[in-house]
Amino acid sequence: MAQEKSSDRQTSRQTGQDGERVAANFLKSRGYRILDMNFQNGSGRRLGEIDIIAKDPSQNEIIFAEVKTREYTRYKNTLPEENINRQKLRKLDKIAAFYLKKNGLESCGYRFDALSVWLDYETRRAKIKHIPNIYLL
Asked: Model-level pTM?
């Protein structure tokens, strides 16, 4: 039984990584420039992780994107973005402030986006929903 849970966790981790790659490619295809992926503060108390940091050229803003991924065949009737709660948003805010300060970008405009990704491993297709400004929801 413990092996099954370990295997499920690995599968879940791999699904998340696949979703982040799909989301980054989605943003690139829309003109965004990827600045960083899986960013974490390297010292002190761990603040969390930002899945994707990108530049939105149309708004001249930095976006901090949280990616939530589900396997389509198992979770097609769920909304991955529902797992982004207030606690997660507070962590994103702290790590984003750290990133901006570390890179001398405090004066840049920025926002927090969410990308929901449903992966269908059978058809090798993905459905992506980009939700800009998740703080405004």
From this structure: 0.84
